[in-house]
Amino acid sequence: MPYVVTQSCCADASCVVACPVNCIHPAPGEPGFATAEMLYVDPRSCVGCGACTTACPVGAIVPDTALTPEQEPFREVNAAYYDVFPHADRTPLALVPPQRRLRRPRPVRVAVVGAGPAGLYTADELLCHPEVTVDVLDRLPTPYGLLRAGVAPDHRHTKEAERLFRAIEEQPGFRYLLGVDVGRDVTRAELDEHYDAVVWTVGASADRRLDVPGEDLPGSCSATALVGWYNGHPDHRDLEVHLDHERVVVVGNGNVALDVARVLTADPDALAATDVADHALAALRTSAVREVVVLGRRGPDQASFTTPELIGLAGLRDVDVVADLGGAEVTGEGVRARVLRELAARRPDPRGRRIVLRFLTSPVRVGGTGRVGGVEVVRNELVPDAAGVPRAKATGETELLEAGMVLRSVGYRGMPVAGLPHDPVTGTVPNDAGRVEPGTYVAGWAKRGPTGFLGTNKTCAQETVEALLDDLDAGLLDAPETRDGDLAAVLARRGVPVVDLAGWRAIDREERRRGEAAGRPRVKITDPAEAREVALRRGRRRRAVSASWR
Ligand code: NAP
């Protein structure tokens, strides 16, 4: 009974380490690991022990006997990897490297700025060393970054990575300083003074633009803002979302585009069983949207969505998913090509909701009076560039697509961090394996750009922490010499209402309590002031209880 990796694979490779027979690839360090869409179990060498399932933080690995009909294509996807990259000749090997130890052990304090997946994996790596303590700071009073505010609510397995983050938070030496804005509440120079090293894991908070007329009309916004809106991110909870028209157009066809298309056409009753933000659920319950058109400027062979996400989309039951190839051909014979051809052959039920994956089409203008009324699109053809890569070239054949909303889903973009170097082309902090300079490091999207999955951050964090430990061992990091004590005390003197781990736990409990009352897994608190109040109320109660014991 071999096991099968399914679509919610986070690629953090915990399964690779757990597997006693070395049958999950590509493994960290192997060619292709950094760019793999998912990891694959070799059905010929798998002994069915289930160790991988226990290790997987997102419940993505199932025995082949338990595959649902929608997951069935993953049996072939896993096996097909080994047709191309056979691993049968490899002997089982101990993939767990010996634990590195500090050459000159001494207490080390590290600040990690950003409590998203990259920040928490970084903290986890650092805390393998008993000499190291880690403060994780975040501007929001709640942690988990894109796991909380980016992963689509219907990807419930992926959200299970929360359990992994809870285990990281509970380690000795871990501390949260949440609700702290670096730049406003504390300066970068002060962080450098208080810590041996600072790791910036601030992600890529902005989005790329289309640069077409009408892009700023009300009703035209970034898909990333919409993702923040339905996930209850405080910055986007007041976003103006126009769901009164039958059609929404999404520009770009990466995984974010598929996420928003799915959520906008989902059955609201099914969404109610997720942690989608209350305001979004209410808006989606009265939505007039029947069709989401996802525009790819190039052909189906060049689409950015990954095969696992395409299989997940094609398997949706309550929405028709179809493809309009725009005259392009799907080449190849694998699962991906087969699914795309099957979608192109489907005819949607005109009465139902649908998602149309349309190819070889670009927007040239967003139009409307006072707000979005539609988007003018042009048909493209593919022309190879100097390196032979097929690029989109407009044919001049245009068409008007009526729509009430246009969402640009053309990638995230990293913003400059005051005091750190910035590469405006990649939107990243220039670095060498995570090192900006001794004492200053980056991990996650700020380091490598906005690509990869949740678990990609694990190997990324490992590399950065290696660089930090190299500098520590080389004596390049000065121990902090501050007279004003620990940073938490400084922030308290400044009156910054810091949320610690217990405060975050109080917010988490309150969200789950509200969820239970509404028959939902959680009702997110989207107002940071209210979240702080919930966290601090708990602190006040605790102080009152301890005073009554004195
Ligand atoms: P992405 O994968 O980089 O896709 C960007 C898309 O925008 C591409 O289709 C690109 O087309 C298109 N594009 C760029 N500029 C354009 C323009 N001017 N006009 C029209 N189209 C344009 O970005 P993303 O979807 O934001 O995803 C970011 C990362 O997060 C990815 O690594 C993704 O896999 C990951 N993610 C994963 C999941 C998941 O696993 N469920 C969910 C969400 C995000 P070209 O190819 O022609 O450039």
Described by strand count, sense and barrel closure, the largest sheet is: 6 strands, mixed
Q: Give the strand order of the largest sheet, numbering strands 1, 2, ... along the chain.
A: 7-6-5-8-21-20
pLDDT < 50 stretches: none
Count all strands and give the number: 21
**Small molecules in complex:** NADP nicotinamide-adenine-dinucleotide phosphate
Q: Gyration radius, to the nearest Å?
A: 24 Å
Average predicted local confidence, pLDDT: 93
List the total number of helices. 19
Q: What general outline do the C-alpha atoms trace?
A: globular
Strand content: 15-25%
Given the helix and strand composition, which structural class is it? Answer: alpha/beta
Termini gap: 61 Å
Residue share in helices? 25-40%
Describe this structure in words.
There is one protein chain. The chain is of the alpha/beta class and 550 residues long. 32% of the residues lie in helices and 18% in strands. It has 19 helices and 21 strands. It has a six-stranded mixed sheet with strand order 7-6-5-8-21-20, sandwiched between helices. Strands 10-18-11-12-14-13 form a six-stranded parallel sheet. NADP nicotinamide-adenine-dinucleotide phosphate (NAP) is lined by residues 210, 251-257, 259, 296-298, 302, 304, 306, 309, 362, 409-412, 450-453.
Descriptive keywords:
globular, 550 residues, six-stranded parallel sheet, binds NADP nicotinamide-adenine-dinucleotide phosphate, alpha/beta
